[in-house]
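Aim 2, interim progress. The first record below pairs a target sequence with its C-alpha cells.
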Amino acid sequence: MHVNALTDVGLVRKDNEDNYLVSADRGLFVVADGMGGHLGGAVASSMAIKVIDEEIREPHLEENPSRLLHTALLKANSLILQQGQSENLCGMGTTVTAALFQKGSIYIAHIGDSRAYLYRDQALTLLTQDHSLVNELLQKGGITVEEAQYHPQRNILTRALGTQVLPQIDFTTTPALPGDMLLLCTDGLSNHVTDQEIKTVLSEESNLKQKVKHLVNLALERGGNDNITVVLVQYE
C-alpha cells in the first residue's frame, strides 16, 4: 500500500481548519474539515482525527470494521459536543470521511461534504454523497450540476460531526483490488476541480506525490478560497 497526502491553507483563509490522518500499517485514512467559531473548526477537526487515531490503534480482524469506525466517530462526536459548550468554541463541528482497509475491502464512514473517490480500471466512482443543502437540491432536481458548482449556499451542511447528539453517519463497503486508488479530499478540492479533472490527473503516468500536488495546484489556480486537503492511497 502506497500513500501520499497534502494539505494547503489556500489563498484566502488565514487558518487551516482541515486535518488528516494517514496510517498505512493500519490501513486507516481520514480527512476532516472543521467549521464554526474562532478556531473552532480547527479544534473540531483535530479532535475528530485524534479520537479516531486513538480508537483504531491496531487491526481488529475479529471485529466489524464499520462498527469500529462508527464507535470512533460517535466518541469523537460526543467529545466535540462537550468541548463546544465553551463560549469561544460554540457551534463548532467537522466533516469526517474515514477509510479502513481490512479483510480485502475498503470500509468508509462519512458525514459532511468531504469526499471519497475510487479510481479503478480508468473509471472514477464517487463513494460518498455530500450532506449539504446544495446536494439535496441537486438530488431533488431543483438545480443542475453546473448550478450546484457555483451555488452561493454550497458550503451549508445538513450533517456534521459535533452538531447533534446522535449524528447520522453513512457507511459503504467496496472490495479492494490491486491497483485501486482511493482519494479522500475536503471540499476545497471538490468545489474547484471537477470529477473529470480528478480522473484525468489520476490516470496520468506520474507517482502519487505528483498526482496529489497536481490536484492541489488545480484548486489553487481556480482561486483556492478554502483549505485544500488530499489523501491518495494506492492498494497493492
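The second target in this work package is listed in the same format:
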Amino acid sequence: MIFENGRLAVRVLEERDLKLMTKWLSDNAVLEYYEGRDNPFDEKKAEQVFLEVNDEETKCIVEYMNKPIGYIQFYKVDEKTRMKYGYSDENIYGIDQFIGETDYWGQGIGTLLVKSMTAFLLHNKGAQKVIMDPQTRNERAIRCYEKCGFKKVTKLHAHELHEGIYQDCWLMEYP
C-alpha cells in the first residue's frame, strides 16, 4: 500500500488490474480527456503500457471503500523537463490521474485523491513542488486541482496530441 486516507487507498498496480484498466480506457467518457476516444485500450495494450518496467513512474490503482475506481501515477521530474519548464534543481514530482468508474465522478473523490497524493509526495518523497499538465479544455479537472491548491503557471501551447489535434495544456503546480 502506498497510502490510505480514510476510505481512500492507493496501491501499486498489479497484473490482476489489467482488466480494469482495459475497461476504463475503452470508456468514451474517460477517453475524452485521458488518452483519447481514438485510442481505446485492449488487454494487450494495457499490459504494454502499464506493466512495462519503468523505474521513473510509480503506477497505482485508486481504491475507494475497498473498490478499485481509478488510476494515478507519480514520478520524479527529470532534469530536461525541469529546465524546459524553467525550474532549477528542485525536487519536483509530477502526477497524472483519472477516476475510471464514472459513477464516482462529482463526489469529491478526485479532490481527496489529489490532495492525498500531493501530501504523500511532499512528506514522504521530499517533493518541493508537484506539477501536472491538464488540457485547458478539461475544466472539471482544473477546478478540482485549483481546489487542491494548484495554480496555473504557464499555458503550454500545442502540448499534447489528443484525438488527432494538438491540445493546449496548463502547467499547474503546488504550492
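The mean pLDDT is 96. This observation will shape the mutagenesis plan for the next reporting period.
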